[in-house]
Design brief:
two-stranded antiparallel sheet; 2 helices; 228 residues; 35% strand; alpha+beta; globular; single chain
Length: 228
């Protein structure tokens, strides 16, 4: 049987490993000084991604207070009420052609396949304003077109208030969006950020919330042992 000291040492090692693992694997955006500014399934704090006390099923981005900032693709999120913390799966009738909805589970705000979403409906006869945009919709406030995802091997390039899908520059593979041709601002789903580049990370893919919950449980156990 392991001694109490050995058990404590193992718990500390697991905690340290989990912290380092979180910092590398869940960060999708970093500042020039390499501080993490955006995490998935966790919250950013200084250089680290901090595990959550409460996991919201279906949530991808969290605010600093632990509330849900953005649900994963395939969900409806009501941003106008306290229900923003609830991610509701889209109905089966729209999942084949819809990415996300902010209207209801059976309508669409961002359509797939290069067609525009207008007033909750995918307009098959109206393509995205940018031919290299794969998923788009219409901002209900400004009535301007929004590109949600570019086509594969393209990135959203920002210049001022305008954005355009351009071929991913060499070295920016896996990048979602950037205002520079040499450094990625935000990595795509399935990638994590480090030193202005993106590297593959299965932990930033959708449907990984349960894995974060498991790590949260491990940290709870570690905290208990540290107190006794």
């Amino acid at each position: 049987m392991r001694s109490a000291a050995n058990q404590l040492g193992l718990i500390l090692l697991l905690a340290a490993s989990a912290r380092a693992w979180q910092n590398e694997q869940f960060c999708v955006a970093r500042a020039q000084n390499n501080t993490c500014t955006q995490c998935v399934y966790s919250t950013a704090s200084g250089p680290d991604c901090i595990s959550l006390k409460t996991v919201i099923p279906g949530c991808y981005y969290y605010n600093s207070d632990g509330s849900c900032s953005m649900c994963q693709d395939g969900y409806y999120q009501n941003l106008n009420t306290t229900s923003a913390n609830v991610c509701t799966p889209l109905n089966a009738t729209v999942t084949n052609f819809c990415t996300v909805s902010y209207i209801s589970p059976d309508t669409c705000s961002i359509c797939k396949n290069g067609v525009m979403a207008m007033d909750g409906i995918c307009q098959d006869d109206i393509p995205c304003f940018d031919p290299n945009c794969d998923q788009c919709g219409l901002d209900t406030t400004t009535r301007k077109s929004i590109c949600w995802y570019c086509r594969p091997n393209y990135i959203l390039f920002y210049s001022g208030d305008a954005s355009l899908c351009i071929p991913a520059p060499k070295g920016l593979e896996g990048c979602y969006s950037s205002s520079s041709l040499y450094r990625c601002d935000n990595c795509n789903v399935g990638f994590a950020a480090k030193d202005g580049k993106c590297f593959e990370s299965s932990d930033t893919r959708f449907k990984s919330a349960s894995r974060m919950a498991a790590w949260g449980a491990l940290m709870t156990v570690a905290a208990f042992w540290l107190r006794v």
